[in-house]
Amino acid sequence: MTKSDTIFKLDIGGNLFLVVLLASIVTIPILNLVVPPDSAWHMPTYLVSLLGKYLCFALLALSIDLIWGYCGILSLGHGAFFALGGYAMGMYLMRQIGTESVYGHPILPDFMVFLNWTELPWYWYGFDYFVFAVFMVMLVPGVFAFIFGWLTFRSRVSGVYLSIITQAMTFAFMLAFFRNDMGFGGNNGLTDFKTILGFSLQEDSTRVTLFVVSALALGLGYLLCRFIVRSKLGRVLVAIRDAESRVRFLGYRVENYQLFVFVISAVLAGIAGALYVPQVGIINPGEFSPANSIEMVIWVAIGGRGSLYGAVLGAVLVNYGKTYFTGALPELWLYVLGGLFIAVTLLLPKGIVGWLRQMTKGLFRRAAG
Amino acid sequence: MEEHIAMGEQGMRPRFLADSRALKKGDRLLYLDNVTVSFDGFKALNELSLFVTVGELRPIIGPNGAGKTTMMDVITGKTRPNTGQVIFGSNTDLTKLDEAQVANLGIGRKFQKPTVFEYHTVYDNLELALKGKRSPFAALFSCLSSEQRQRIDEVLNTISLTEQQHRLASELSHGQKQWLEIGMLLMQEPQLLLVDEPVAGMTDAETEQTAHLLRDIAQDHTVVVVEHDMEFVRSLGGHVTVLHEGSVLAEGTLETLQNNEKVIEVYLGR
Fold it and tell me: What are phi and psi of B117, to 5 degrees?
């Protein structure tokens, strides 16, 4: 082991990320709630929610890095799990609206009244309970990932074929959710949310709390992923990525390992989606669009896969760029994203983190030699 | 736990392992019975029958396309034969099992091209091969015991890679990778080692060291070696099998084979 490898075992980048995250959990609520609005240090609420949204994307990117960076499973349909988690939370938020809705129906959400439905569909039962909704946020993406993964990994579908099937999966979800008679609000999706757990979504304190919960979820998600990739299981995953048949001949059932991380990853993506929805105030079938899922993979590629915190960095940087460009030069954004992806692939094939690692490695070599 | 469920599905039980453990030196360990494999009409194996006894070091030679690698694929569950059986130990039919099940029965395989985990250290490569529970949950909470560490150290010593143990496998030379892969087989504590062209691309000194290593391993393992290099086969000694066009052409010591008309014909051409 070279010196610099030992240093990376200490996960300096990851720990730095955790420190920054912790600092933001402490300072951002203060900057928003304690510092008076006329102070230059005051952080406006829209910014807090924007950062909260980035953190949700970062958790999503983390879940992609776990399977792609460590196990070589390139999912181009992870947006589906994100959206499923989002819809589960959206259903709870819809039920929370109650009689405050436009039609004022005590049970049925507006779009159902509009469609002349008289009864709540069975799959909406239970979503008036927060605990049930939280459970479904994890269960629905997890079960779907399990079924999907069980069928594909057992048949040894991998590489490009797996990527294409995941694209098809998220596309199928999108078409299904666009239909009004599916009972998920069709084209418009779920929106017009009022409260969460009785707290108004318009309140600054609720927004700040959602930010803090997102940050905690990201931090815990990171620690979970780090625990996984540092265990022997993580070493088996990397081994599968690099020499799958060798792993089989050592007696490991590769499909079980792939299924295990795929389900964990889908659950993390679902949690990210569930935290995203109350902060942006809407979930619609557009979240299932294949282009969305591809964009997520680009975040990870730009940040640098196989390091976990690289995925977080990529998600935050690219989304910051997106916010900036879609505000300043909206028609240019897609070209910028495409150009960025090409530039990173050509110049920094291991992403920003991979490039930083190489630079520091070089420095250590020089220092040692 | 998952492993057991999956095994149950295919009707295999771990007791076969215990069966083959009870075998004594000289008992039949592996028996290929009339195995035929055809790819689009081409018979890679043609009613191949051969057996290997416990404790043997058996070189298998043959010209290109003789079916050596296909034979390994059939034994290890990678390729299903069209007809025939492969019996391991007293009564396990390997043709019904997949790669992981065959490996867990105690059959280790070394590929022709050295296949190690390039982004893992030498030590981690051996740890991954270490005999033990193979389920994801077991792996998630796995810790090495001191006996296991000792076992890894022993194997590191056997394959002369103790000094390289913390290096990435990708940094090893070609010969060292071959030894590492042999070391990984040893970590599995197999009943039977299948070794495919272990000295291809090695220097003479490395070849000699590999022969030494394999003879050493053959002291307490059954080893089947597929090889092209005649000098190397001579240095291994023992009973040699010649494959040709998917079946056994001849068997015997290398000296008798070298005077065998059929073998000369196949190797030197008509």
Answer: -90, 100
